[in-house]
Design brief:
By secondary structure, the chain is of the alpha/beta class. The protein has 2 domains: 60 residues, 2,3-Dihydroxybiphenyl 1,2-Dioxygenase, domain 1 (Roll); 68 residues, Signal recognition particle alu RNA binding heterodimer, srp9/1 (2-Layer Sandwich), CATH 3.30.720. Helices cover 16% and strands 34% of the residues. The protein has a 4-stranded mixed sheet with strand order 1-4-3-2, covered by helices on one side. The two termini are 30 Å apart. InterPro entries: Glyas_Bleomycin-R_OHBP_Dase, Glyas_Fos-R_dOase_dom, VOC_core. This is VOC family protein. It holds the Pfam family Glyoxalase.
Length: 128
């Protein structure tokens, strides 16, 4: 069995500076560490229980199969903050049939990000 001690998502953006501005500025993710120099330097952000590394540069467009899932405390508040910062909201917060509140945004490369709120009455919060 593989004993995983830590993990991170590696993101190779087409425009590293725009991606760092999006994840660090617009989303306000805190920096875990940085490495290298120049525009393709690496920046690793805290992502709840994991990490998101933005480093290098990609020539290809975003893959439609990648989705980032981030749980937030309050989707409505996140919607207001992100919209005020100019982040394009693909879909505002909606309570889904499965009980979670979800909203969708995209990073500068078009990678889709779902921000999810687990309401206090949802079974994910408490199971006797």
């Amino acid at each position: 069995m593989v004993h995983v001690l830590s993990s991170r998502i590696l993101l190779r953006p087409r425009d590293p500076d725009a991606s760092r501005e999006f994840y660090g500025g617009a989303l306000g993710l805190e920096v875990y560490r940085e490495f290298g120099t120049g525009p393709e330097r690496g920046t690793v952000y805290f992502l709840g229980g994991g990490f998101l590394e933005v480093s290098g540069r990609a020539e290809e467009t975003a893959t439609p199969t990648l989705r980032l899932w981030m749980q937030v405390a309050d989707c409505a508040a996140a919607h207001g903050e992100l919209a005020a910062r100019g982040v394009p909201v693909l879909r505002p917060p909606v309570r889904e049939p499965w009980g979670l509140i979800e909203m969708w945004i995209a990073d500068p490369d078009g990678h889709r990000i779902v921000l999810t709120e687990v309401p206090a009455d949802h079974p994910l919060r408490y199971r006797p």
